[in-house]
Design a protein that fits this description.
The protein is of the alpha/beta class. It has a single domain, classed as 3-Layer(aba) Sandwich (Glutaredoxin). It contains 10 helices and 9 strands. The longest helix is centred in the N-terminal third of the chain and has 15 residues. The radius of gyration is 17 Å and the shape is globular. The protein starts with a helix and ends with a helix.
């Protein structure tokens, strides 16, 4: 089963078992972003924005230091609280040996606090860098950051008992649009997948196909 088939099953479970107001809010948020007319994300052929973020051990990771070693698959996800993100990262972990065999590195970035990043990494047994972009600055550099609308804040607080600002150790309710950028050694973005529908993600096989072209 492909990653997006798994995510589609999760979506159908959401529809079958969640309150109508939850579904309405989630799908409204997706529709509004898709209809906004905004071109999210850096585009193919653009220069990747450099950054330094810390991993769960507090070690700073520099994008261009990693690019000096080979291509980088840079993926932005919402957080360890998001089941769609967890499924995505597990699927990417499975193809990590193939990514590495192609000379590339995988880096995952989310706005969650370092403490939550560490617990999530341990739980999922991820063997690639998982970095904390607490204030969403790097996501903003890549033009994928947005403010969670008030109606979604209410749903997340009241029904899911999740205070996103507190979880991310920041003052704002912010999230990145799930995105994956393939960056070559010269720092050029060779492909970009940016989708406001957080229930869909780039397939692992598509990542491998793109890496083979580099």
């Amino acid at each position: 089963m492909s990653l997006n088939q798994t995510l589609e099953e999760m979506k159908q479970q959401l529809i079958a078992h969640s309150p109508a107001e939850v579904q309405a809010a989630m799908f409204r948020s997706i529709r509004e972003q898709m209809a906004s007319g905004v071109q999210y994300g850096l585009q193919e052929g653009q220069k990747a924005k450099g950054f330094t973020l810390k991993n769960p051990m507090g070690i700073p990771i520099h994008l261009y230091d990693e690019l000096a070693k080979g291509p980088v698959v840079l993926t932005f996800y919402r957080g360890g609280w998001c089941p769609y993100c967890n499924a995505q990262l597990r699927a990417y972990q499975k193809v990590l040996p193939e990514i590495q065999a192609l000379g590339a590195r995988l880096i995952a970035v989310s706005p969650q606090s370092p403490d939550n990043t560490l617990s999530h990494q341990e739980k999922e047994q991820l063997q690639f860098e998982v970095l904390s972009d607490t204030n969403g600055l790097v996501a903003a550099f890549y033009n994928i950051l947005y403010d969670v609308p008030p109606y979604m804040q209410e749903i997340m607080t009241n029904l899911f008992k999740l205070n996103l600002a507190e979880y991310n150790a920041t003052e704002r309710w912010i999230l990145p649009i799930p995105s994956t950028f393939m960056i070559d050694e010269s720092g050029i973005i060779r492909s970009a997948y940016v989708n406001p529908d957080f229930m869909k993600r780039l397939e692992p096989e598509d990542i491998l196909d793109e890496l083979r072209k580099l």
